[in-house]
Amino acid sequence: AFSMCGLAKEYESADNEEKNPWLVSISILRSGRGTEACKGALVSEKYILTAAHCFTIDDRADQITVKIGKKNMEVASLKSHPQYTVGKLRNLGIPEFYDYDVALLELKEKITLNSQARAICLPCTAGTTRALRRPHPQTTCRDHEEELMAVGIVKALFVTPCRDKYTSTRGLRRRTVRIKNNDKKQSCEADAIKAKQYENVTDVSQVVTERFLCTGGTEPEVDPNTCKGDSGGPLIIAKRMRYIQVGVISWGVVEVCKSTPPMECQSDKEFQEHAPSHARDFHISIFKVLPWLREELRDEGLDFL
Ligand SMILES: Cc1cc(Br)c(Nc2ncc[nH]2)c2c(Cl)c[nH]c12
Prior knowledge:
The protein is mainly β. Helices cover 11% and strands 29% of the residues. The chain has five helices and twelve strands. The strands form three sheets. It has a six-stranded antiparallel barrel. It binds the ligand Cc1cc(Br)c(Nc2ncc[nH]2)c2c(Cl)c[nH]c12.
């Protein structure tokens, strides 16, 4: 039988890993300069989907360790999207360009899937057709996009570390955000040029390309914001207790987390204070990098539509 994607333990007392069994913590060891931390999502028994900007061109696979469930795993190879070029617009005074900001890490060994390590569903695969309880093979990739991203405001979630106030250990917390599509997209994207790094940007479309999904801001509700450490993590849509990754967290306008410690896991405060209305976050849409994913994951039995 096939291993079902996007399934998690839902009961309250389940541990962090069982509630988010696809969430991967990535640390990149840089001699003399400490480690960089990013997040990722397990998309098959051997591959992790993350952000390309977590790595530099000099980073090698043996400098990267990933934590899945409670296990540390080694990485065999790292492959960034061929069209990712962070320095492409430097001569325009734009220091960082995040178009196609996605990468795949291949594990040295297959991970044994269990309640603490399980793949998330990727759109346009048979696993997502099953997760959406739609008929296979009649259901198309277009049907997935229509079902998942049909309307102007789409509820989604990302997972970020929090501080457990009783055990003061590190926990995980789901944060609900709203993807602004169609008519709401433009005002969301317009705030991109309020990012410090983008003061020289004259036209928003220079830094916000077709590949991005936009969340954050205060309309229709205040959205929590990502932190740099959330880079590479999945932007998830939950449908009937199944979890489907629609984006990879790439960059944000305001670094709201630098000044404040991780939020308390128990606090019911939904969002960071003083999240300004222009605090937007940008994610690479899975639907916009499918040809690359199909190619790189062709032997993983994901059954792309
Ligand atoms: C998730 C994430 C990644 C990066 Br890279 C950030 N840095 C940045 N954004 C624009 C240029 N550089 C931020 C910020 Cl800021 C908030 N969240 C971020």
